[in-house]
From TrEMBL:
Taxonomic lineage of the native organism: Eukaryota, Fungi, Dikarya, Basidiomycota, Agaricomycotina
Keyword annotations: NADP, Oxidoreductase
Entry annotated with the keyword tRNA-binding: no
Species per Swiss-Prot/TrEMBL record: Exidia glandulosa HHB12029
Keyword Oxidoreductase: yes
GO molecular function, one term: oxidoreductase activity
Transmembrane segments: none
Protein's name in the database: NAD(P)-binding protein
InterPro entries: NAD(P)-bd_dom_sf (IPR036291), Sc_DH/Rdtase_CS (IPR020904), SDR_fam (IPR002347)
Pfam families xref list: adh_short
């Protein structure tokens, strides 16, 4: 019965007690949303722009990016929407995107590490890493670290003394295990297990970021956005996609918990915490107890740093 109840709560969470109507004027703040070309990220970016924020949408291709910027301007009524070209699965692209952003802006107030893939067609990156983990975790790790100077400056200038990093996790992290052997070289786990471990990975990263930079005004959270009707399931069998579209919620609902962590005054003290739909703290604050273990966070952080250093060594 407990299992059935937990599945029902996952698909049909209780009514939200917070809504985007509570978001005040965001003008003067700079936001960067990855995975903004569709789904949850696009809905999140649209609201930020509609509320007056300066919004950077990160997209993989110039054609998509210009299209998304036009759509967001039309939907939000704001002209302060810009794009960054970013392929999260490529550390080189992450570096170019971060450099471009830092040439435009000295401050970043909220970074939404939201871009992600499930069961991508290319199983490995050109460097031989699992594409899912490289995109969903390593890219976000590198981008966040490169943007830290702007985030720390944003924290200093913001009235509540914080800059926020909102990391999109998933309820799949609740049952996942992290197997380092499966992250490099030939795929040794199912696509679903690789996705779930990447979502556990981003949650461990979010918690470790909180440990390392919480005393400097960074508020790092992770979010299960809910079961949302997006393009995430595009490589799944058609019948499953059809069924999921019937039961999943619209992207605007998926963006709600991200926005709550990113801009609500009451979440400024939530550094290191995990949130669930709709806009509520997770019951146990983390999807799994291991996320609270500093040794687990340190190990993943160092593994990610090693991958960044591998690229530096091979390209120098
Ligand atoms: N939908 C759900 O039920 C659900 C549940 C739990 C968690 N999530 C998480 O929510 C986040 C957003 O997903 P979504 O559901 O909104 O799905 P989506 O519509 O497929 O959006 C994913 C976004 O990530 C981008 N992306 C994928 N690979 C990328 C790469 N290598 N570099 C840069 N951007 C890349 C996609 O860009 P392209 O358009 O270029 O592919 C797209 O904008 C993901 O992290 C996902 O894991 C979703």
């Amino acid at each position: 019965m407990g299992g059935i109840l937990s599945i029902l709560v996952q698909y049909f969470p209780p009514r939200a007690k917070w809504s985007v109507d509570e978001i005040g004027d965001l003008s003067g703040n700079v936001y960067l949303v990855t995975g903004a070309s569709s789904g949850i990220g696009k809905a999140c970016a649209t609201t930020l722009a509609a509320k007056g924020g300066k919004v950077y949408v990160a997209c993989r291709s110039e054609a998509t990016a210009t299209d998304v910027v036009q759509q967001l301007k039309a939907a939000s009524g704001s002209n302060d929407v810009h794009y960054l070209l970013l392929d999260l699965s490529s550390l080189k692209s992450v570096e170019q995107a971060a450099a471009h952003f830092l040439r435009q802006e000295t401050e970043l107030h909220v970074l939404f590490n939201n871009g992600g893939v499930m069961a991508p067609p290319e199983v490995l990156t050109p460097q031989g890493l699992d594409t899912t983990f490289a995109t969903n975790v390593l890219g976000a790790f590198h981008l966040t670290n490169l943007l830290l100077p702007a985030l720390l400056a944003g924290a200093k200038s913001s009235p509540d003394g914080t800059a926020r990093v909102v990391n999109t996790s998933s309820s799949t992290a609740e049952l996942a295990t992290l197997d380092y052997q499966s992250l490099i070289g030939k795929k040794q786990r199912s696509a679903h297990a690789l996705y779930a471990q990447s979502k556990l990975g981003i949650t461990i990263f979010a918690r470790e970021l909180a440990r390392r930079y919480g005393d400097q005004g960074i508020v790092s959270t992770s979010v299960h956005p809910g079961s949302i009707n997006t393009e995430l399931f595009r490589t799944q069998p058609a019948i499953l996609q059809w069924y999921l579209r019937l039961i999943h919620h619209p992207p605007e609902k998926g963006a709600l918990t991200l926005l709550y962590c990113g801009v609500a005054p009451e979440t400024k003290l939530s550094n290191g915490k995990y949130f669930i739909p709709w806009a509520r703290p997770g019951k146990s604050w983390q999807p799994q107890p291991c996320v609270e273990d500093p040794a687990v966070g340190k190990k993943l952080w160092e593994w990610l740093e090693d991958r960044v250093n591998d690229i530096k060594t091979t390209t120098s």
